[in-house]
Amino acid sequence: MGSLRLFTGLFLLGVAVGDSVFQSPSALQITEGQEGSIACNFTTSDASPDAFWYRKHQDRPPHKILHVTRYKEHDHSADGGLSAAMDWDRRQVRLQVSQTSLEDDGAVYYCALRPTKILFGAGTRLTVLPVLPDSPPSVYLLKPASVGEDQAGSACLITDFSPNDQVKVFIDNKEGQRPPTLVQSGKRWSYGVVEWNSELTDQPVKCTAAYKDTKNYTYEGKDDVQNSCPVMSVDESFETDEKLNTLSLSVLGLKTIFMKSIAFNILMTLKLWIR
Question: Which keywords are on file for this protein (predicted)?
Fold first, then answer.
């Protein structure tokens, strides 16, 4: 809690003296192996501030990767994949990411300025997309488990395709609106999308995927089980795990206490700062 109080106090003091940090863009998508660039513009009254770049992977704390100053304008990582350069006249620090990889470079990057106190930017989320060979889609119908039910709960599953911008999904000739999602299965990547049928009908649902505007892949009918999957059925013998429920409640309680602690620390820091 003490480190959070200290960080909040330093942040507020940095703003009070007129220092600021602005990152752009807030999100960036690039294909594996390509290059990406993140800009960090700052204002400060300090004649020689330090500038840092931090990288935060999911479920891991942020760590410092690069450090530049007015008199040390360039820095790079040991493998050469990351580099930073300061342009003092423009008050800008730019991060260059080259030879991007899925495992290492997909993360949130933070620019930090230290004139006297450390001030962080809002962060830039870098998403690295895999290089995938062209692949036509597979089309499936997800439907209620009971054959006698109407088809209002049915959905079209379009999967195993690439590239992601070359497939249009139609349910009964009505174009879907959901964007594709990148899916990983082991070491294999592909795109997929699910479109739900919102119409009440007792007629077979028709799922169509137009691939590269040249060929349609279609599934139609509710009796063919090869390309359909029964869903929304729950085994009557299903029982919840008492230990799992207790653990979930414990985690929820700890989260509530943690959020209250954060609010208390921020209020106390503001009170001390105002005094």
Answer: Cell membrane, Disulfide bond, Glycoprotein, Immunity, Membrane, Signal
